[in-house]
Amino acid sequence: xxxxxxxxxxxxxxxxxxxxxxxxxxxxxxxxxxxxxxxxxxxxxxxxxxxxxxxxxxxxxxxxxxxxxxxxxxxxxxxxxxxxxxxxxxxxxxxxxxxxxxxxxxxxxxxxxxxxxxxxxxxxxxxxxxxxxxxxxxxxxxxxxxxxxxxxxxxxxxxxxxxxxxxxxxxxxxxxxxxxxxxxxxxxxxxxxxxxxxxxxxxxxxxxxxxxxxxxxxxxxxxxxxxxxxxxxxxxxxxxxxxxxxxxxxxxxxxxxxxxxxxxxxxxxxxxxxxxxxxxxxxxxxxxxxxxxxxxxxxxxxxxxxxxxxxxxxxxxxxxxxxxxxxxxxxxxxxxxxxxxxxxxxxxxxxxxxxxxxxxxxxxxxxxxxxxxxxxxxxxxxxxxxxxxxxxxxxxxxxxxxxxxxxxxxxxxxxxxxxxxxxxxxxxxxxxxxxxxxxxxxxxxxxxxxxxxxxxxxxxxxxxxxxxxxxxxxxxxxxxxxxxxxxx
Length: 488
Prior knowledge:
By secondary structure, the chain is an alpha+beta fold. The protein has helices at residues 2-12, 21-24, 30-40, 61-64, 85-96, 139-175, 195-201, 219-235, 279-296, 315-321, 341-355, 403-409, 415-419, 427-449, 454-461, 465-474, 481-487; strands at 43-48, 53-58, 104-108, 116-125, 130-137, 180-184, 190-193, 241-244, 250-260, 265-276, 300-304, 310-313, 357-366, 372-382, 389-396.
């Protein structure tokens, strides 16, 4: 507001009156003069030298809406705010002394809330010691000034926001472990490069920023990149392209994006290294070989999510279930191909969740045509993978292994070993297995008490000698039938 007053005072110093007002304005009567004042000012007051308002006129709709018609007959100083009263008194003193008055900022109280600012000037008129005070409503100028201030603050906020965005961009650009280059589209010169890119290209022995890409990449790589960049400008999309440094055993994949600057185009190139020296290349080849072995192996492999929905499966599993394509099983529940869908799959998942891994779970798988095949399943849970998953290795067997055949291979020696069979064989086989374990332990205890006298052991156990011979051979406790007979 002070700036507006200063401008008005500066204008006062440049004011020039009419050259011959008597000749130019002699036809103006009081009515015309009043209309002219009303049209030229926002408010006009006729004030006695004692400060009483004798007449008034409003030239702006904003002033007339304030209800200031009640000023008529009041003292001028009573219509202004307290801090503006000295300014009114100063104006009236200047008029009484016939001195030139300056524009003064005076505030009127408003019934609508905020004070109304008016810029006043006064002159002496007529022979009856009266003054004409004309005023300009400063509210429109104040609104414009506030808009200017708001716009300036908005520009400053946007400026600082952009500065913060630039700082974050610079920080990410510098800290990125992935090499990044910003290249001018017209000259193909490197405009910026982050530390990872400088480290990657340092083997060329040349400065990177300001150099052309052709000085960093070999011929075939540069030709392929030029084709990709041309397609990027044409349709806004670009495929990845392999690149290789000049005279360096380093190859990588380049991804490109188009960035529009104010007056130019820039390419943003992201470099993903595939091999540095021979170490990473060897590791990748080994990893690829493992994947190929699993994919083409004779045993079936199925990977599911934690709920048992299939994520992927190799061709060996497709052969078991008699399907042609992997997409026919992807997303399907693994339980669908179990011979006993409810019990077997529930036992398998419960043991896998509890132990984290499982070996040689015996079950029956059924293909889509109803044909069954006996199988052994080894499984592992990977809850922290990306994504979390379950892996199942499936091996087909000619027949289901029974508890007896397990005993022939390796007889459980304790209840703890016997409990490990839970979930791997049916309950009836577990009961038979438990009976065999108890029977074997009793025979071993009887032989130990009789100091290996088998006739006495048979009598102690309430068995015939022939039954004891059969059980000894069954459990592998007899060296031979002839040896057993000789001891009797």
